[in-house]
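Follow-up to my post from last week.
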Amino acid sequence: MEAITRPLPLPMSFADGVFPAGCPSRTLLDHITSKWGVLILLSLSEGEQRWSELRRRAEGISEKMLAQTLKTLERDGLVSRKAQPVIPPRVDYSLTDKGYELSGLLVPLVGWAFDNADEIINGKRSPLA
Amino acid sequence: MEAITRPLPLPMSFADGVFPAGCPSRTLLDHITSKWGVLILLSLSEGEQRWSELRRRAEGISEKMLAQTLKTLERDGLVSRKAQPVIPPRVDYSLTDKGYELSGLLVPLVGWAFDNADEIINGKRSPLA
DNA sequence: CTTCCACCTTACCGCTAGGTCAGTACCTTA
DNA sequence: TAAGGTACTGACCTAGCGGTAAGGTGGAAG
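User reply:
Got it. Predicted complex:
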């Protein structure tokens, strides 16, 4: 309802606001804020996981999207893939250093979304007041 | 290259991993991590802004998408819209309390993306080593 | 002998996010 | 008279995100 005109405690500011179109930041942002990218990153933030495990945890993802998302994140150096030449195949996915850095910022965001989703999406204002 | 098997300093964990498909969290997450949603939220985190100002700062956005994104964020109670009945029309957009909360988490994430984009997207590894 | 599982890949395809363009209403400046 | 700025809305269309389904490999289990 009432918007507060806050003094905007912005620690950093981008050029004269937001970054230019077509710059790499936009691309990277698209990768990490993609529908499944967030969930994979989030899931992996809890530790190394296998393909089938990720598939189960990122509920609703298709195998195609899982493969595609993992490949993108691996190319970006956020996820590391370790395949063992055993039968049946075993592949472990985990976050790289950069991936951990990122997940440290991503987790609170998703946590916030999780906490406020019900109130915001359905009209349920302050369930405890 | 080398992935570290970190002890995963996760402060909170979701159920048994990630949240279920079709729940409100997914919807909210889609809104705030949408291509333009992030940029609008980010831009508004620096204070109240007018339509045309947002249009300029979120470089590349179309009027249709600007309107649509603002409408979604307003419905979610993250952005407040104040229209003044003057000629020519003047409308000011700003973040609500919830919006500020969110931007506090979003800004560092985008900052990180901004800092690491060049290194990650183009192959430029450690430009200062 | 067939099925099933793990881990993918490729082919096909619908849907929709998002782009483009035109139009509206009113005032200002050239 | 005409062009331009402010804040939109709606029609139309396309690229590509993402879904569905099938294929492939090799062992183990029925």
